[in-house]
Design brief:
Blueprint (H helix, E strand, L loop, with lengths): L1 H25 L1 E5 L3 E3 L1 H11 L4 E6 L5 E3 L4 E2 L3 E2 L10 E4 L12 H12 L3 E5 L3 H7 L6 E2 L5 H7 L4 E2 L4 E4 L2 E4 L5 H13 L1
Parallel strand pairs: 1-3, 1-7, 2-4, 3-6, 7-8, 8-12, 9-10
Antiparallel strand pairs: 4-5, 11-12
Helix pairs in contact: 2-6, 3-4
Amino acid sequence: MRTFLFLLLVVLTTCCIEKYEGEKMQKNVLMIIANKNFRDEEFEEPYKILSKIANITIASSSLNEAKGMFGKVVKPNLTIDKVDIKNYDAIIFVGGSGATEYFENSAAMEIARKAYENDKIIGAICIAPVILANSGILNGKKATVWNGKFVEMLEEKGVIYTGKDVEVDGKIITANGPNAAKKFGEEIYEMLQK
């Protein structure tokens, strides 16, 4: 009986370890940044949190080094027109003033729509929720965004603006700026764990 219990314990432990390691390897996150003027903290905080459980791919409009508003330099892995949404569990649009380059970008709109249609986790921070609103996936949903004209841009697309630092509606997570970057990353982390 002891031998049987010992073997059962070994099998269960092995399964749990393999399951945990397998889950880590199965999580893939795409972070989309502007080629110029993405917001450093809105990239760094979620990246630091999510890299504990996920492989992270960086996409931008160019393969040239992307530069943050405060000097962060990131080398993208691929351009947004080469993104295959099926390869990722979560897609994150990073904010900063440069995110305006994606407000009407057809590839960015397509990524947002396909991610939504395929039930992926979708995140957007700072002014990047405007990308989601312009793609049509936030119509009738709760979201937050950086203040001012960006609130109006969301509301014009049928979004229920809440003004919270971080808002979660289904699998869509939005945040209003750099001060919410850590909490934004944590919310995505938690959802990836489910």
